[in-house]
Model the fold of this input.
Amino acid sequence: MQKPKYHIFVCTSSRPNGQQKGFCLSNDGVEILMKFVEEIEDRELEGEVFVTNTGCFGVCEQGPIVVVYPDNVWYGSVTPDDVEEIMDEHIEGGNPVSRLEI
Done:
């Protein structure tokens, strides 16, 4: 298995019982996840950048939450429109998007 350069985690409010409900889900968490998948494919970064949906990070009031490793950068109040900026600035440019950091 190839280790990615970046691993992006997106809260989609998944629960251990398989249900999806919660703040991030109701505020476009799945759409954000899918936008990252599309951007990774469009930029041909498969293998370098992984994206995974997650359950709650425990900071719902700041959601939807996106976390980028190995940089340990947490983004809050992310919208689908922010995905391209995160990809441009952080993933490809190496500079976190400070206005979204929590």
In short: DSSP finds three helices and four strands in the chain. The chain has one domain: 6-100.
